[in-house]
Amino acid sequence: MNEIEQIALDKIANNDHELYALIKQRYSPRIFDQKPVTEDDMKKLFEAARWAASCYNWQPWRFIYAFKGNEGYDKIMNTLSDFNQEWAKNAPVLMLTAYKEKTPEGEENFHALHDLGLSMGNMTVQAQYMGIAIHHMAGVDWKKAQEVFDVPKGYHISTAVAIGYYGGELENLSDELQEQEQAERERKPQKSFAFENEWKEKD
């Protein structure tokens, strides 16, 4: 067993209750195998996103993606935070997520961001099924991304995503990032966010 395979095993969720295997196995790596992510792979991921639930079936999600070596990839890279740029260069595909802010009637779609999240949840599980890792990033200058890609008014860039097959070389990361890559996964206990009958969190 090589180092990357061991990391993958170590990242399997130490869940308190039984979980679907693909959810248990999912994690957000900062290294990726150099096996190409193909256009067909991306179409399968977008098909999963396409079939996500959304308010009134408005499907407000939008995506901009680019393969490494293309101009669009460099444009997305340049919108990322310095920290994310340090490792995201390992990803074969970079993507920006966005949502349409208004309903078909021109009113604010309060649920659009929620629906974008649902579509990305679908995509993430589909990717896991395919052996593809998806690393979601909040560290993106969305205003710069809107400008670079000439996103029209009424649409909002939300996050960036690094996409690639699990694998790669740990040595491609700095010592600090190697340590983070191998760190144990942690989650809050259910009682801290799931409340029966009444709201229980005080601050």
TrEMBL record:
One of its GO terms (molecular function) is oxidoreductase activity. The keyword Oxidoreductase applies. It comes from the Bacteria. Transmembrane segments: none annotated. Keywords: Oxidoreductase. Residues 23-165 form the Nitroreductase domain. Residues 174-203 are annotated as: Disordered. SUPFAM superfamilies: FMN-dependent nitroreductase-like. InterPro entries: Nitroreductase (IPR029479), Nitroreductase-like (IPR000415). Pfam families: Nitroreductase. PANTHER family: NAD(P)H NITROREDUCTASE YDGI-RELATED, NADH DEHYDROGENASE_NAD(P)H NITROREDUCTASE XCC3605-RELATED. Belongs to the nitroreductase family. This is Nitroreductase. It comes from Euzebyella marina. The lineage of its organism: Bacteria, Pseudomonadati, Bacteroidota, Flavobacteriia, Flavobacteriales.
